[in-house]
What does this fold into?
Amino acid sequence: MKAGIFICHCGHNIKHTVDVRRLSEYFKKIPGVEVAIDYAFVCSEPGQDIIKESIENKHLDRVVIASCTPSLHGDLFKDLLKKSGINPFYLRRVSIREHCSWVGDDIEANTEKAKRLILSGLYSASHYIPLEEKMVEVNKSALVIGGGVSGLNAALFLAKMGIKVYLVEREEELGGHVRLLNSVWPSKRSGREIVAEMVDELNRLANVDIYTNTTITNFEGFFGNYQVTLKKGEDEKKIIVGGVVVATGFVPFDPSIKPELHYNKDKRIVTTLDLEKGLETLEISKKPRVAILHCIGSRDETIGKSYCSRICCINAIKTAEALKEKYPESYIESFYMDVRAHPKGGEEYFESVQEKGVLFTRGNVAEIIPTDKSIIIRGEDTLLGEVYEKEFDLVVLSIGMSSPVENKALGQLLKISLDKDGFFLEAHIKLRPFDTAVKGIFIAGSCSGPKDAEESINHGKASALKLFGMLNLGYTFVDPFISYVDPKRCSGCRQCEEACIAKAIKFDEKLRIVKVEEAACMGCGLCNATCPSSAISLKGYFDSYISDEISGLLEIA
Amino acid sequence: MSDKTEREPEIVGFACSYCTFKASEMAGSLRMKYPEKVRVIQVPCSSRVDPAFVIKAIFEGADGVFVSGCHPGDCHFIKGNYYTRRKMAALKEMFKAFSMDGKVKLFWISAAEARRFIEKITNMYNELREEKNAGKKN
It folds into this structure.
């Protein structure tokens, strides 16, 4: 073995708490290590050049890169090995940033930990065998789940690029929540109008199949070839798609969860969404006193929703403006924690509404007491440090976004994770905000966290673009991490056959040993851990790899 | 840890790459802290963990080993974690005979639960540290 070890400083991220120089000096002395270099940014172009030159000049056959976590820059380094002329599966990534420098403060202890981690990576890599990635064709079609604005835009984008699109919507009509909006800030156009334009455009395209009132009952396969079962009423239909955009959106927070808000019990207490149906339905005088309550169902630990819903401040301001325009004589007071009018032009809009005479008081409402004549509101003005008690004729609750309960079932079906609030989890919150952990499944819109219409549309288009890029290539490489059987060791006990979840192991009656169906194997390694004769092994995770990794971590060095 | 003679337990963890390993990545990104002597090995699924690996780690000096997978029902490989659960239960039963069952732990930690990851491993670390320094107590 001729191994090269490349230790990344990651600027100061690793160097700050790990003595990288000491590590490279240490590894230079280890037998089998030809090169041990520490460098500021291994992923940068000069960094890659160093690796490439070392492989070529020193004829390395193992490359250990100690840097960030393996899920970042995975393909980059794999491609680099390919370009340098060695098998990409001779690469070993060791995470000394997420699993070492960032989680400990002590330089001595961290350096020791990094040394162990790299050592175990090196030991493990010494057993590596070359593997071949299999190229498979990709089905140029996509499934878009959810017909709200983000789903519609994802579908539109994909369809225009020539991808066959299946758009699935659970409700009877497309358009999601935007369809229900009377006016969409800042354009002031009605949501119905905006959605209708998108749906018309979609209907004009020949390569789009729209399924309303439809749910997904089964989902199998891998990127490029997902088999999906759609259910509409009693009818079931099977389709094959290359990739998926999940855009299931949100549900408005239901204020009746908090009984102290008296929602649904008193007609004079309404939500911002109720008012989108039009102010005409309100039974109030020409000179109403209106209280608008912010952060209903957001930033509230008592109901387990600590996040900001991002849309409700603008909604509250918009409602205040609409009321002020219809009832110029009205008295409107908004009770807030912080006003987060974050979209473009939001802050100016907030100021303009203040100038129109809407009062903003800092301090959440503590108590709502409905009486026959009025609704009494109590709370503390946190700027003045005084308790207020005021009477109002109408209370508007500016509700936030919650995750749909159905996300859990869908997440289990698609094998994608949820975050603590029930929204879908991004592969990386900053670097891969559209991807899920599953290849070929993207998330769009407020199903991954509260977003306004503009952001949802952008998110939908971006996810569609990423998926298009993958589909348009026409092929993909499948990880070669599948099981294989050593016929000399197999005793034919068939324990692995029984255990295999994917039913990928078949017994050969003639040879009295088992065989693996490569296309069906999912690569979990359960058979490997089950086999009493060590005859069946998962490529990429051989017993020897993991076993020596353990030794590397614990050996007295 | 002011007492220099205090012994720190070494913990080896096997983390499923679809959930716990992701949670550990997130814990790193969020700069959460946990003891340096806790080290994680990535496996494709918790069911890949042969009980022999756990035994090997303890044999080679680990004070504790944890295996961590997806919550029941959430396994990427449909039901790999159920197999893990059975295997670890059997292993623990065996370890009980040697009063060593405290050394092996099985956790369910999803990709989003960085905080839970930290809590679980820190608790385990503290328990084992107590045990490891039992002889020093007056």
Observations:
- DSSP finds four helices and four strands in chain B.
- Chain B has a mean pLDDT of 92.
- The first helix of chain B runs from residue 20 to 29.
- Helices of chain B lie at 20-29, 51-59, 80-96, 114-132.
